[in-house]
Amino acid sequence: MTSSLRKQIILFSLYTITFLWACSEVTPEEQAARAARTYYQCLVDDRPAEFLQGKADADSLPDNYRAQLLMAINQYRADMLDKHNGLHEVQVSDNVGRRDSSLHLTYAFLILCYGDSTQEEITVPMIERNGKWLMK
Asked: The pTM is what?
């Protein structure tokens, strides 16, 4: 193998790696959708307090308001159980998230899969704070 051919192979390999790396970069919309899915998965896994921690400013909520929100989350879970045999899976929708730069929000689209085999697509407004995506 000649040195010229080796150089061409090496350059081709570097271009290919660079191209693949650039194509595999995760967009902010994808990051927001993955974070939203993680928070909603907490509802599937019976972890309502962790779901609440996914909300922006959850750390600064007064204790009585936090308790009320946890009650509302548990009621939401109970309603899903009653109406749809519970929430069984959360998927990121094929619909691409949308950024609203005027409100500094990214809307993530999730599909809630229920125990009765029905599905519902929801929109979750997300905000980025210090590199972490949180539900608005």
From this structure: 0.78
pLDDT band at 99 (very low <50, low <70, confident <90, very high): confident
Structure confidence by residue, pLDDT tens digits, 70-81? 999 999 999 999
- DSSP-derived secondary structure for the chain: --HHHHHHHHHHHHHHHHHHHHHTPPPHHHHHHHHHHHHHHHHHTT-HHHHHHTBTTGGG--HHHHHHHHHHHHHHHHHHHHHHS-EEEEEE-SSPPEEETTTTEEEEEEEEEETTS-EEEEEEEEEEETTEEEE-
Question: How many domains are contained in the chain?
Answer: 1
Residue 122 lies in a domain: yes
CATH number for the domain harbouring residue 60: 3.10.450.50
